[in-house]
């Protein structure tokens, strides 16, 4: 979180209130304290505790849909206790948390593929060849259908360009992934052309995509066909998901997305701050491209009255010098 811990548990995009956080924190804390094993007494660690608490909040507040982000990795992350999610997504892989996840992209891909579940569709974006093969193998061993998202351009064909609320070209693959995840959720819920949930408390009817007991898919949502195991499409190790026409709500969602502290520009008098959370080689490279685009393309006042500050932050065992070198 950037400012306060409540940012980690949000409902309808807003961090839960101090009152709700306090109420559920003590409820969960006291229940665990009362029931812990007296011999090997220990409470869950920080992130694990907040994960348990988040699940409790979502159940008690009866949310229709929970988007759960993995903490680190996947296979052994505490968020991975969800046995039957509606859909899974793996975004662009990078080298990070090497002491926990391994020091190669293949090892990291193995960990990330640990969130795949039998019969639950999964999507990923364009990845280097070997890590993509690892994801494919993990999907096969877990009896999960893995699809590659088409580029965002495919969703724009013959239509207007999709506007993104988040700056930087790297956000286009994230947007394509978000569209596929949203569409799959809608299909699995048998929604007819509207965006929203039916049913509460996380009960999810699981029937095959595109055949929801007589219900129709929202207009423009193409069907995902099951691809026989081992099939290669046009030399791809992973079949390509079909593009579709985004609904008005999806278009608005992409446009209105905000992520404070991520490619954020804050003008404050003579100083303009550029904030980003990049901390891996690939994300710092993306940050450099964004900063050059956002800052250096604008003419600087000749009197030197404007100061531009790119705020760079790195913690833990990361190689600061290597990351700073990319900013030179």
TrEMBL record:
It comes from Aptenodytes patagonicus (King penguin). Its EC number is 6.3.2.17. Keywords: ATP-binding, Ligase, Magnesium, Metal-binding, Nucleotide-binding, One-carbon metabolism. Belongs to the folylpolyglutamate synthase family. One of its GO terms (cellular component) is cytosol. Pathway: Cofactor biosynthesis; tetrahydrofolylpolyglutamate biosynthesis. Gene3D superfamilies: Mur ligase, C-terminal domain, Mur-like, catalytic domain. Residues 193-238 are annotated as: Disordered. It comes from the Eukaryota. One of its GO terms (molecular function) is tetrahydrofolylpolyglutamate synthase activity. One of its GO terms (biological process) is one-carbon metabolic process. It catalyses: (6S)-5,6,7,8-tetrahydrofolyl-(gamma-L-Glu)(n) + L-glutamate + ATP = (6S)-5,6,7,8-tetrahydrofolyl-(gamma-L-Glu)(n+1) + ADP + phosphate + H(+). This is tetrahydrofolate synthase. InterPro entries: Folylpolyglutamate_synth, Folylpolyglutamate_synth_CS, Mur-like_cat_sf, Mur_ligase_C_dom_sf. Residues 193-202 have a biased composition (Gly residues).
